[in-house]
Amino acid sequence: MFDLHRLRLLHELSLRGTLAAVAEALAYSPSTVSQQLAQLEKEAGVALLEPNGRRVRLTVHGQALAAHAARALQADEQTRTELASLGSEPTLVRVAAVQTAAQNLLPRAITLLAARAPQLQVEAAELPPETSLLELSAGTFDLVIAEQYPGHTRPRRDGAIHEVLGQDWLRLVVPKSCAADELADLADRPWVLEPEGTAVRQWALQQCRAAGFEPRVRFSAADLGTHVRLIAAGHAVGLLPDLVWAAGDPDRDSVRMLPLPGNPAREILAAYRSAASGDERVGLLRQALRDAFAERADSEGLN
């Protein structure tokens, strides 16, 4: 039988791509990771790694064993979940969330969860989906709250389930003093968009191009709070989701929100490993998130 710990290292290498990244993620030294994988090669009786410049890559045998490792780790998680369900009540669930959900959805979900399962503690981190979904596959988190924009569906890793929590409507946001009525009126205005290379930036550019112009992107920021403040101060216009607004946000009175053609919405996702489908902790958190999203939609009246 293969050592499960060494299989985990191989699985991590298949996800992260380098020995250094595996070592950093698991708080090992690169030499320790290398030694453990060398031992796994001996157990397998075939070469699992081969040089690739200054790095290594998986051989055909390494890829096959990495796929087996993913299944073995999934089975191990399912077994642990079953055993935990027969014993004491669950105590900890780990979640990562995209910024707007971390700020304006997750707090309410944690409040609901505290009332329903006070023994369950939540550990949360704010991370972009590109990072958090990888960490979900690696087992760092039990659930990830991500988003996907129209026409930009998130890739699904093996063993992951994506559940849509709800639709988050996207709107054109302009300063209060701006007289524009539609997207085509803003060809000459400065814009704020998310950084280059992100799916949301590509989606925003396509909206502007479909309206007949290339936006003058003067500001670039990953933090949507920065977008809100630049727009409220009259320095830019932008495209923002409804979930960016906190209850009673004073900046909301300093902007106008206009509809976009076709009334597009992004999807807010709860992603979790299929091995955790029967995990009570994950199930309780998923329900709390669905309820928090529904409450917000009702109270805000933005839909």
Topology summary:
Elements: H1 4-16, H2 19-26, H3 30-44, E1 49-52, E2 55-58, H4 60-85, E3 92-97, H5 99-104, H6 106-116, E4 121-126, H7 129-138, E5 143-148, E6 160-175, E7 190-193, H8 199-210, E8 216-220, H9 224-232, E9 238-241, E10 255-258, E11 265-273, H10 280-300
Parallel strand pairs: 3-4, 3-5, 7-8
Antiparallel strand pairs: 1-2, 5-11, 6-9, 6-10, 6-11
Helix pairs in contact: 1-3, 1-4, 2-3, 6-10
Defining key terms:
single chain; 303 residues; alpha/beta; Arc Repressor Mutant, subunit A; D-Maltodextrin-Binding Protein, domain 2; 3 domains; seven-stranded mixed beta sheet; 43% helix; globular
CATH top level of the largest domain is Alpha Beta
What is the radius of gyration? 23 Å
Mean pLDDT: 90
Order of helices and strands: HHHEEHEHHEHEEEHEHEEEH
CATH architecture classification of the largest domain: 3-Layer(aba) Sandwich
Please describe the biggest sheet, giving its number of strands, its sense, and whether it closes into a barrel: 7 strands, mixed
- Helical segment tally? 10
What would you give as the CATH superfamily of the largest domain? Answer: Periplasmic binding protein-like II
> Are there runs of 5+ residues with pLDDT below 50, and where?
none
Q: Strand portion, in percent?
A: 15-25%
Assign the structural class, choosing from mainly alpha, mainly beta, alpha/beta, alpha+beta, or little secondary structure. alpha/beta
CATH topology value of the largest domain: D-Maltodextrin-Binding Protein, domain 2
**Percentage of residues assigned to helices:** 40-55%
Shape: globular
Instruction: State the total count of DSSP E strands.
Output: 11
Tally of discrete structural domains = 3
Distance between the termini: 55 Å
